[in-house]
Design brief:
By secondary structure, this protein is of the alpha/beta class. The protein has 8 helices and 8 strands. It has an 8-stranded parallel beta sheet. Helix 6 links the parallel strand 7 and strand 8. The protein is globular, with a radius of gyration of 16 Å. Bound molecules: D-xylitol-5-phosphate and zinc ion. Zinc ion binds next to strand 2. D-xylitol-5-phosphate binds next to strand 2, strand 8 and helix 7.
């Protein structure tokens, strides 16, 4: 099966204690930090921008992956690159010229990812896949943490897995939305290797062992 990697989404962290929360998940075995950027247009919610990436960058050794849920992401690629993002993931549905966007991310020296919404077919990735370092299959409609996992995305995860194995085996397959210790085994079985988890990590209660125990529970259940 290979190693399953966990990418805690800081969206569900306590922003007043962001540094501490990130250090805690790093110690617990998180592979990277997932930064959810929302613009109030592509998705209903507004979250954070490059300034938070810039503040976080020197405080952690973990890679920072920015998930841009924004319209017209081309306008902000340079800002996120300069702020210290290691991976820049844009939505297939967020702009018009995806190929140009991906080439720009690579020219900035960053890893390039494409995310697809639950209703977007896997097939839309076929032509761009050879250029990608990461595909992100959304397992909820983007916009908010704490939503229920959409199980009908599982066959699509399998199709994306097959496409990656055929066209770009080094490309990572990540899933995002409603991932916890219960849903992790199904997405891993379908072929996901990087799991984003927000509320399952940062909303874990102290009586359940807090953030560190939550990271370990998800990784253990993903390992089968
Ligand atoms: C959803 C975001 C996710 C979100 C996941 O729009 O892209 O990264 O933080 O949160 P949970 O794990 O709570 O579904
Ligand atoms: Zn995300």
């Amino acid at each position: 099966m290979g190693m399953i990697k966990l990418a805690p989404s800081i969206l569900s962290a306590d922003f007043a204690r962001l540094g501490e929360h990130c250090a805690e998940v790093a110690r617990a075995g998180a592979d990277r930090l997932h930064v959810d950027v929302m613009d109030g247009h592509f998705v209903p919610n507004i979250t954070i921008g490059p300034v938070v990436v810039r503040s976080l960058r020197p405080t952690t050794q973990l890679a920072l992956e920015t998930h841009l849920m924004i319209e017209n992401p081309d306008r902000y690629l340079d800002a996120f690159a300069e702020a210290g993002a290691d991976t820049i993931t844009v939505h297939q549905e967020g702009g018009v010229h995806l190929h140009r966007t991906i080439q720009r991310i690579k020219a900035l020296g960053k890893r390039a990812g494409v995310a697809i919404n639950p209703a977007t077919p896997a097939e839309t990735l076929e032509e761009i896949l050879p250029d990608l370092d990461l595909v992100l299959v959304m397992t909820v409609n983007p916009g908010f943490g704490g939503q229920a996992f959409i199980a009908s995305t599982l066959p699509k995860i399998r199709r994306v897995r097959q496409m990656i194995d055929r066209l770009q085996p080094s490309c990572e397959l990540e899933v995002d939305g409603g991932i916890d210790a219960k849903t992790a085994p199904a997405v891993v079985d379908a072929g996901a290797r990087v799991l984003v988890a927000g509320s399952a990590v940062f909303s874990a209660s102290a009586s359940d062992g807090g953030v560190a125990a939550a990271v370990q529970r998800i990784l253990a259940s993903a390992a089968g």
